[in-house]
Amino acid sequence: MKWLEKIVDETLDKMAKEKVLMKNPDPHMPEEMIDSSIPSNNDWKGWKPISSLFNDSDLNKLEKAIGIELPKSYRHFLMYKHFYELDIPDYAVNFHTNLPDRDFEGFKELLFEYYEPEFLIDKGFIYFADFQDYGLLCFDSNVKRENNEYPIVYIDHEELTTNNLYADNFKELLTADGEKGNRFIMELNEL
Length: 191
Hints:
Blueprint: H1 2-16, E1 23-24, E2 45-46, E3 50-51, H2 56-66, H3 72-78, E4 81-82, E5 93-95, H4 105-114, E6 125-131, E7 135-140, E8 152-156, E9 163-167, H5 170-174, H6 180-190
Antiparallel strand pairs: 1-2, 3-4, 5-6, 6-7, 7-8, 8-9
């Protein structure tokens, strides 16, 4: 998936030009991700993306744990790079930190502990990003598609029972312009 790798690489290159985006206060930052060329500031250390340590076997275990197959493009995304942030043009989308964690404890926490499973994962929603501070972005696995390229829905974090279509698939999400989030909020307000 060259298109996906190109988006991730271009985004990370752009972020690297603004050193403030490449700092994180994680006291347990993986050694291989520390970027000593970025000056530390208090607890904030420079970080750099690294090639992902995840492989198909790891992601198969994650899928077994959640009981849902991931979209092929999202699997590739997870197997491509580890990062703390990824500032795609649609600024409303905030991806979760993707660190080398072969046990997927961070993912399991998001999927099973942040919100009760009966509200999301048990209903076929795979929570993978935040929408600003308004809500969640989830893959809707109830809509069957080739390569599991599920639509992406927005779910308000205060009312987990209603969802609204945000993007047709992961590629549409990654290639959206910077105003998509604003347009979406305006459309929601009109409902």
